[in-house]
Amino acid sequence: MTFPFSIWFCIKVVQEYERVIIFRLGHLLPGRAKGPGLFFFLPCLDTYHKVDLRLQTLEVPFHEVVTKDMFIMEIDAICYYRMENASLLLNSLAHVPKAVQFLVQTTMKRLLAHRSLTEILLERKSIAHDVKVALDSVTCVWGIKVERTEIKDVRLPAGLQHSLAVEAEAQRQAKVRMIAAEGEKAASESLRMAAEILSGTPAAVQLRYLHTLQSLSTEKPSTVVLPLPFDLLNFLSPPSNKTQGSIPFPNHSKYVEPLNPKKKDSPML
């Protein structure tokens, strides 16, 4: 009489993202995990456990690691994993999050001991990939699949932060001085080439002179500039002081031999 009513207590529903493991009298029933859908069990003889197959997130707290160059830092991480084999998982681990957390911490300490401080700060992506591969090789025995591992934050001691800041500032100052020196060198080379060109072309000096006068009249209209002709400059400068850059002007005056009153017209006279 009670069978139509008691049968409903022997049927359970499993969601799409869940699997059920049934133990009958303490022994694991053979076969794959039950679900999704309906499954049948005996309330007096069977016990069942549900396993969530969705992606799980585990935050690993800060823990100290020692780098290859003997620096001590604190680092935390995030691990993403999922249950891959429900039967193997229930028979292998009792506390899954705690086991995964300790495994992540020990693996990161072991791998980061072979990395320098600069590599840890600059190569987080490759380090996270190495940690993920190392974790996956261990958790596959437990029925867990590690999907991803990321380094969340890195804490450095105050003294180390100050020394790194001083070193970075010194490198920036050295780079600025190097750039300024290169600029001065390029400017001096340009001035030397310009001087050579102007010294070889006298007309270029006059054009430069006129361009300077035009610039002065444009920038400062109230300034009165009285240009001095080049002919007068060359006339006033002595011949010995003329440099290669001076502009030679032809002298139209011809040399006139003075008359000698004592000179005779003929040696016979």
From TrEMBL:
Transmembrane segments: none
Cell location: Membrane
Main location: membrane
Keyword tags: Membrane
Gene Ontology CC: one annotated term: cytoplasmic side of plasma membrane
Location of the region described as Disordered in the Swiss-Prot/TrEMBL record: 241-269
Record field: compositional bias (Basic and acidic residues): 260-269
SUPFAM superfamilies from the UniProt entry: Band 7/SPFH domain
InterPro entries from the UniProt entry: Band-7_stomatin-like, Band_7, Band_7/SPFH_dom_sf, Stomatin_HflK_fam
Keyword Glycosyltransferase: no
Domain Band intervals: 9-168
Similarity remark: Belongs to the band 7/mec-2 family.
Function summary: Plays a role in the regulation of glomerular permeability, acting probably as a linker between the plasma membrane and the cytoskeleton.
Identification of the protein by name: Podocin
